[in-house]
Large ribosomal subunit protein uL24c (Cyanidium caldarium), 142 residues
Amino acid sequence: MKFNKRVSSSRRKQRKAHFRAPGHERRIRMAAPLSRELRDKYHVRSMPVRIGDDVLIVRGSRKGSAGKIRQCHRRKYVVYVEGVARDRANKQPADIGISPSNVRIVALNMTADREEFFEHKRRVVRARQRAGDKDEEMVDAD
């Protein structure tokens, strides 16, 4: 079902937008879900991945591996996780690129921007809870 007339539903236009997206849009597209504990704590379902985040690989051949994000490669839409590598023919290690959709963030690398975002989110959640309490009081009064 289409909700916005200004956004195309065409597969080829979506693919074109995806592969030609500028870096600031790719950052948003490279988001990963948070673990259940972080979701309950911060009231956020997913976040853009960042260097230093602890992640657990939940899909693919490296499923079950965990580590810190060492590099985010926006051009390739992949992240490199510490300890997730393979050996080349000459026995040198080669990093394996993992799609951010295949990982789950288990610990966040907190920065000032993220702290500010979560503080704003806390205020919004509190305001919604207060509004919900008022609605319940009005229903009880009827």
Summary: Strands lie at 31-33, 46-48, 54-57, 66-73, 78-87, 93-98, 103-107.
